Amino acid sequence: MKCGESDLSSLLGDYSRRDFLKVCTASAVYMGLGESFGPQVAEAAANAAKRPPVIWLSAQECTGCTETLLRTGHPTLETLILDLISLEYHETLNAGSGHQAEEFRAHSIEENKGKFILVVDGAIPVKDGGIYCKIAGRTALEILEETAPQAAAVIAIGSCASWGGVPAAEPNPTGATPVHKILEGKGIAIINIPGCPPNPYNFLSTVLYYVTLNKLPELDDKLRPKFAYGRLIHENCERRAHFDAGRFAEQFGDEGHRKGYCLYKLGCKGPETYNNCSTLRFNDIGVWPVNTGHPCFGCSEGGVGFSTPLHSPAQLHHITPPAWFPSATPEKGKGASALAAAVAGAAVGAGIVAAGMNLGKKDHEEDEES
Amino acid sequence: MAKRITIDPVTRIEGHLRIDCEIDGGKVTNAWSSGQMWRGFELILQGRDPRDAWMFTQRFCGV
After folding, report:
1. DSSP conformational letter for A257
2. How far is residue A340 CA from its own chain's centroid?
3. Cβ count within 10 A of residue A205
4. What is the pLDDT of residues A16-44, one digit of tens each?
5. What is the pTM of this model?
6. Distance (Å) from the C-alpha of residue B34 to the closest C-alpha of chain A?
7. For the structural domain made of A52-198, what CATH number should be given?
8. Could you give the ipTM of this predicted complex?
9. What is the dotted CATH code of the domain comprising A231-315?
């Protein structure tokens, strides 16, 4: 533990050193780094010289992503976020307005060229030359294209920035486009933290990972950190046992709903949404939509949230194993009966049946020979 | 001669707001406030299942 006492006490303010280490260790474990990385994370977080400058650009957003970071019930989180990083520009949090804010942004970009993290919330409208979102008389598109190549990495926070979200819902009136599409092919490191809003710990852990190891966490094909978006909500859902047992709420307020049965038939999109809501949960009091009795609507998954109707059933990609399996070592010598062949033919197609019949015939011939 | 002052962006609020003021002889003679971002919720909501509406409308503003 090399974490300097003075660094820590100046960083912590009202919080105890113990609380700070607890959060850092929890984050380390959560990122899959292991408990022993806790002190290393704390050291990186407490070392002011390493605090990465962050420029936060807002485009077509609702500020929900900012709120989720600032209004968490956890006592230390917003302080950690603001002390852990050096927040240089953020429209909602800036003290200065107008040209003062814009001048400071330009100055900070110049000073921290190649070192700052660019966080973007909101989609970027491209229709009609991008006029549907303007800051200081310039389009969000123009500002992003100018700023991103100078950043060390770009974090697209929220569903809007990650895959389009609400503004990109059909008929996408403003040509709302995710950040990674705008910056495609420019060789810029991009991380998506989707969710509407995303869990603040997913953002915090990504930043801590970068600060501690000086590299980006492992990402999936949709540029999401695997430690947070590696599993379907359905896989770790507390109501999963009801799904497997076929116990469903059929309507809001019915007996099954009151008993806490699975919400699949009410349109829960847990089976097609990759996120950690069912394990990490929200507001530091362990709530998330499903434990309040509402189906997940897939807010963080492109092509699910805001695009499929809320109460239509989800596509099941991983179907529950059946209760009964055919024997792996069938009894020899009987062949396929005509009835079995017909049933199987209806189910799996004629080609396989033909093969099955041949196999049966062969077994039968063997029996005759013996 | 009227002087024009523009404040854009207005910070510490949600959204993208711009204020334009015309000042003549030390007095504001005219002023405009304009939202600088539009997503088109009215168009997005058309033709959808009404039960989906809250999912969109509650996302006007996240504050």
Report:
1. H
2. 46
3. 25
4. 667 777 777 777 776 767 777 777 777 77
5. 0.81
6. 11
7. 3.40.50.700
8. 0.93
9. 4.10.480.10
